[in-house]
Amino acid sequence: MGLRFRFPTCGFSFAYSERMSPLPDDEAVRRYPELAHLITLRESGWRFMPVTTDDGRPTEVDGFRAWPGGVTDGIRIYSATNVLGIRTTPTDPPGLVWERTGTLGQIVAGLLSLPAPGTPLAPRLVVASAFPGSWR
Fold first, then answer.
1. pLDDT(121) > 70
2. Out of 8, 25, 85, 130, which residue is the most buried by the measure of CB atoms under 10 Å away?
3. How far apart are CA 130 and CA 92, in angstroms?
4. How far apart are CA 103 and CA 87, in angstroms?
5. CA-to-CA distance for 136 and 132, rounded, in angstroms?
6. CA atoms of 63 and 99, how far apart (whole Å)
7. Spans of all domains in the chain
């Protein structure tokens, strides 16, 4: 299954259109090696949504993985070097129990190394409220 993102020559950014054909993973990674990190997340059950301006220009890519019980891991990608990763609780409003910023590789490694929710070493201490829009 290919990624449904077009990869402009301007660097690591995304645009989305239902009319575009996905690139095969190997070709996408050949052109943009950073995408290997997103493929790893996708293969771990992550879902991705591009965020665009009103005229369709990409601004970021958001991704998430929902765990049983309602805990959610999230990633916001502005560029290969400007990425935010979070884990939130299923409370209302959601509580932030893990947050990191860094490069795409650093954040993906951090997210993938987080222990599963409910296990002894999983983060539990709520350090902030993670209501929608708070991590922009």
1. yes
2. 85
3. 9
4. 17
5. 9
6. 14
7. 46-129
